[in-house]
From TrEMBL:
SMART domains: CBM_2. GO terms for cellular component: cytoplasm. This is 4-alpha-glucanotransferase. It comes from Oryza meridionalis. Its EC number is 2.4.1.25. GO terms for biological process: carbohydrate metabolic process.
Amino acid sequence: MPSLVPAAGGAFPASPLRSLPVVDVAFLLPHLAVALLIHPFLLHVFIIIIIIIFFFFHPLLIPSLLLVSRHCGRMANLSGKKSLNTVTLVFKLPYYTQWGQSLLIAGSEPALGSWNVKQGLSLSPVHQGNELIWSGRVSVVTGFTCQYNYYVVDDNKNVLRSESGEKRKLVLPEGVQDGDVVEIRDWWQDASEALFLRSAFKNVIFNGSENAKRELKTTPLNKSLEPEDIVVQFIVSCPRLGAGSTESPWRGAGVAVPIFSIRSNEDLGVGEFLDLKLLVDWAVNSGFHLVQLLPINDTSVHGMWWDSYPYSSLSVFALHPLYLRVQALSDAIPGDIKDEISQAKKQLDKKDVDYEASLASKLSIARKIFKLEKDKVLNSSSFKQFLSENEEWLKPYAAFCFLRDFFETSDHSQWGRFSQFSKEKLDKLVSEGTLHHDVICFHYYIQYHLYMQLSEAAAYARKKKVILKGDLPIGVDRNSVDTWVYPTLFRMNTATGAPPDYFDKNGQNWGFPTYNWEEMSKDNYGWWRARLTQMAKYFTAYRIDHILGFFRIWELPDHAATGLVGKFRPSIALSQEELLSEGLWDFDRMSRPYILQETLEEKFGSFWTVIAANFLNEYKKQHYEFKEDCNTEKKIIAKLKNSSEKSLWLEKEDSIQRVLIRDPEDSTKFYPRFNQEDTSSFNDLDEHSKNILRRLYYDYYFARQENLWRQNALKTLPVLLNSSDMLACGEDLGLIPACVHPVMQELGLIGLRIQRMPSEPNLEFGIPSQYSYMTVCAPSCHDCSTLRAWWEEDGGRRSRFYQTVIGSDDEPPSHCTPEVANFIVKQHFDAPSMWAIFPLQDLLALKDKYTTRPAKEETINDPTNPKHYWRFRLHVTLDSLLDDKDIQATIKELVTSSGRSFPGKVDGAEESGEKLAKVQLNGKP
């Protein structure tokens, strides 16, 4: 027992209460302790009384209290009670932190904070050679067992970073004795190393990989060996060691195609969920472990072909009725309905998807089958279970669809008393006693069958060791179920988009409201977690659309039409004080459209006065601004709809001819207009002001936001990643802040590399052989032209690619020949990227017989067109592709020669019983 050190001078502090001498108490206490042994249960009561006396009466009782502890402890030992045996645990972990960061351990037991990070075990750093070792010690009882993890925290113990993967587990063996010191040396678990614990690998690719035929048989050893001569041969399956391979990390390949683009012998003018089984078969035959899709949620907002846009969700939970196979709704479809289905097949078998006709036909047929089957289906245990497990989103969705059709608009602000969602109103809308209950049940019925059909396809893919990869859109339509039910989660007076980039020099305006992240954080992003949980029912991997939006989003006012007048949210604005300190004071001059009389005369000649009278006000001499009825992009577009072509120049002026964007919520804050040097407003400034604005522009877009955006992503992305065990990939194209790739690496997020859109600013074409492992590489994607179309678009670029990448000084062919396609595709197969995923159109370019269709028609999306019709449909059926053994063999040869894994291949350690890691364990068998 440690002794209590007296205060300076050798005595304990004096006390004002002198009536109770300490020597008398010390004399009596041992006798009291002996007496208490007769009634041991009184011991704790007695100690509590002493503690109370200590706190309220006399500080001189401190030594007496120690005496009680000592005497009671000795007497307890004499009575046969044993003290607990303790062991000292010493945790050590090498890790380099930044200034203001430290490490701690939190675990399942009280000694490690019971998972409360702020009460965890703090570690201390010590430099050892080139390493920074963090260590800490804690005393525990022998036989101690716990789970634990390491955390990087700030000075207030707020978590900045946590380990990925499964929780660590510590079990002390029986041989550890009282007083022993046990040292635990750990290494930080990077997220990239935990990828192979995700469902894509665990439940699909590596599931059921055991091969009993390859089991090594044991043989009796008739020879005596010393321990140092024994070498244990074993197989390691660990991401650090290439997941079992002694040669290189695991790599796989996949094919990407939207469901609506699939053509089969069974579909009604558009691909269907059950067609995925054919696609999986083709993927397996071609050597692919993955099938990637576009979003599959219901987008029925407008009731027309505009809804073909798969990223504008009506509901983030409901599946799209477009992908329903009506033939599978019942085993007893009457002959007249079968005839109708056959007729619809012929009518809808077109070159491209007829979105409106296909959807209308399917819903019409489904309603007829529903009338015949509703009682049977709605009373089935399977349906009841589906309704019970999904009612939180399914009932609001069905009610929304009913109200949308009743009011003939999805704009819920036009729904009168139903504009504001409430649980009470919902319960009445979906109750059984209503006249429209069959309508509600029909929506349940459709979603139930979509769930059943997609689940069947997903189970088939897992059985074939093929990953289904979904797509998580960044936004939802402003007239959606989600904005109706959860309006506080969205900033409805704003829109989401992207600044000018490779896709569009005017930027993009997607129209979705931005997220109210502050409100979402109050329930730990429950809406997002529910989305990922729902996706994980079908997918084992997913693509995060526009992952940059989780760092910062390009936010536009709701009156914007293009992506030019936006600002990043969150971001540190330029304050009025900051601008004044830099000598910039004319805020109106820089934040208003800069329209001069001389510019009007130059553009319109003598007609300029008519233009000015109709559209402009002169706010100071020879300086003009737009009138109230056309002072936003949308107002200008509306007013100019029937104007002369020449006057359309005005359409660009409101957004282009300004240098600063004033914050609509705080007029003292400003944001540099993107590409500000392209404006006449900037060019007419003096050189001093130009230089200041250039510096502030660079600081705003490339410097001051980095830490803010990093911390913002680390608040939200880990929640998404921990909501399911799906493999996550991020679409990180466009203007990439410096913080993005380090954060993605920390979190184990796989990036995207498109050869024609290199992330390196000084390259025209990416170099696949130099891509990092944690990437998906692809020659194209749905947001750009296909390989064949890209080759034909720009002759100069084609020649540069042919010379610098292919390495030929000859004149390149005007069309992308199978030889050129093979070269580019092989480049991507051979890349170090974990995944090489190819649009199906680019793979078909490997054979002349599939290149008869004009290349431009294979493009899925044109990002420059906000009303693009998403209707591309393959010109060949999956059935015939499955019959084409030649193209499947060609692709599989590219897969196998690149060393990538393929279904049927025994990967890593199981590939050969002879490939064994030989490790000598310090002479111990």
